Amino acid sequence: MAENTDKIEILDLKGNRKDIKEKEEKETQIPENISNEDQKKKKKKKNKKKAKKLNLSEQTEPPTIPVTKFYSKFPEGELMDYGSDNLWRTTDEEKRHLDRIMNDQLNDLRKAAEVHRQVRYYAHKFIKPGLKMVEICENIENAVRSLIEAKDNDYTSGLAFPCGCSLNNCAAHYTPNKGDDTVLKYDDVCKIDFGTQVNGNIIDSAFTVHFNPMYDNLVNAVKESTYAGIKAAGIDVRLTDVGESIQEVMESYEVEINGKTYPVKPIKNLSGHSLDLYKIHSSKSVPIYKNGDQTKMEEGEHFAIEVFGSTGKGYVNDSLECSHYISNDRFVPLRSAKAKSLLNTIKKNFNTMAFCKRYLDRLGEVKYGMALDNLVENGLVDACPPLSDIHGSYTAQFEHTVVLRPCCKEVVSKGDDY
C-alpha cells in the first residue's frame, strides 16, 4: 500500500506554516524495547505537550479552532488611564475594589473580543479585489461561528451584528441579500463592520479596507478621529465633548481624489452608541461632532466609539434594498401564521440581536418577505436600511468597544491591526 503523504497545514498567528501530521507520526514511533507502562507515560506526556502548544499559538486558516482551545481566561484589551480630573480613581481603594469585581466579570466580553480579533486578522489577509461581497461576508461570519462555537436555535453566543461591507458612498448597513453578486474593486472603499457576543456581552468593532493609496488620507482621518474619541471618553465626560474631539481631528484632514481636493467631514447623523446585554444600540448616542449633548458617560457603561467620515455632504439617507433587521421586546398580537412562525425563528436564533436576510436563508426560511414586512409594520422588528451620502462621495469607518471600568477604561476590541 502506498504511504499516505497528505499534509495537514496549520498556521500560527504570525502566518508560519507547520507540517503537524508528519511531525506527529515521527513522535508516535515508539521503540520496541520500551515497556507498556513506559509507552503510556510517553503518550500521556506527548498529548500534554501537544495541547499546551495548540492553546498557545496555533490557528487554522481560515480560522476554525474555537478560542476556548487557546484560553480559559481571556486577555484584557488595551488599558488607558482617565484624564487628569479622574486620575484619583487609579489609587482610590474603593474604586480599586470595584474594579477587581468588574474585571472578573469581563471574561465573556473578552472572549467575544478575541474572536473578533482573530477573524479580522484573517479578513485582512483574504479580502482583495475580485471577490464577491457575499463571499467576503460569509467567510467572516462562518469563521465567527466556528471560533465562538455558535449553535442554531441558541442565541447565547454568536454574531451580534451581521457583517456589513458598505461600499464607497454607502457608509453603513449594507450586506448582500440573496442574488446580489456585487464584486469588490480596486478603487472601492469598503467598511467591514461586524459584531460578536457571548451571553449577550457585545463587541462592536469595524474597520475600512481600501487598496488605492489615493484614499489613504480619508481612512487615516477616520482612524485617528476614532482614537481621539476613545482618548476623550471617560466617566463623567459629556457626550458632546467626545464628539468635539472627534470632529477636531477629522476636519484637520483633506484628501485629493482624481485631482480634486475634498475636506473630510464627520457624518453628523451617524454616531456611536452605548451597549447593553443583548442590545447593540442602547440608550446613549456618542456624537462624532460637537452637538451640545450634555449627557454624561457613567462608570460601568460599555460604549461603541464609532466614527464615520465622508468626502460628501456629511449626511446620509436610506438607500438600496434593506438587509439588516433588529427584533425588539414589544408584544403585538399577530394574525398571520407565517409572521408568527418567522418571529419564533427570529427569537430562537437572535433574540434582540441584529440579523440579516441571509441568516434567514441559512436557517431554511423561504418566501418570508411578506411575513418580515408584517413584523416591521407591526413594530416587532426594526428595519435598518443601508445609509449613503451623495453619489460619487467616499466614506470610511472605524469602531472600537470601550468599557468604563472604575479605575481605568479598557479598549476591549483593540488589536495589533487597529
TrEMBL record:
GO terms for molecular function: initiator methionyl aminopeptidase activity; metal ion binding; metalloaminopeptidase activity. Substrate binds at residues 173, 281. A divalent metal cation 2 binds at residues 204, 273, 306, 399. GO terms for cellular component: cytoplasm. It is found in: Cytoplasm. SUPFAM superfamilies: Creatinase/aminopeptidase, Winged helix' DNA-binding domain. Residues 41-53 have a biased composition (Basic residues). Its cofactor is Co(2+); Zn(2+); Mn(2+); Fe(2+). Residues 15-62 are annotated as: Disordered. InterPro entries: Creatinase/aminopeptidase-like, Met_Aminopeptidase_Type2, Pept_M24, Pept_M24_MAP, Pept_M24A_MAP2, Pept_M24A_MAP2_BS, WH-like_DNA-bd_sf, WH_DNA-bd_sf. GO terms for biological process: proteolysis. CDD domains: MetAP2. A divalent metal cation 1 binds at residues 193, 204, 399. Its main location: cytoplasm. It catalyses: Release of N-terminal amino acids, preferentially methionine, from peptides and arylamides. Its EC number is 3.4.11.18. Binds 2 divalent metal cations per subunit. Has a high-affinity and a low affinity metal-binding site. The true nature of the physiological cofactor is under debate. The enzyme is active with cobalt, zinc, manganese or divalent iron ions. Most likely, methionine aminopeptidases function as mononuclear Fe(2+)-metalloproteases under physiological conditions, and the catalytically relevant metal-binding site has been assigned to the histidine-containing high-affinity site. Keywords: Aminopeptidase, Cytoplasm, Hydrolase, Metal-binding, Protease. PANTHER family: METHIONINE AMINOPEPTIDASE 2 (PTHR45777). HAMAP family: MetAP_2_euk. Belongs to the peptidase M24A family. Methionine aminopeptidase eukaryotic type 2 subfamily. NCBIfam families: met_pdase_II. This is Methionine aminopeptidase 2. It comes from Anaeromyces robustus. The lineage of its organism: Eukaryota, Fungi, Fungi incertae sedis, Chytridiomycota, Chytridiomycota incertae sedis.
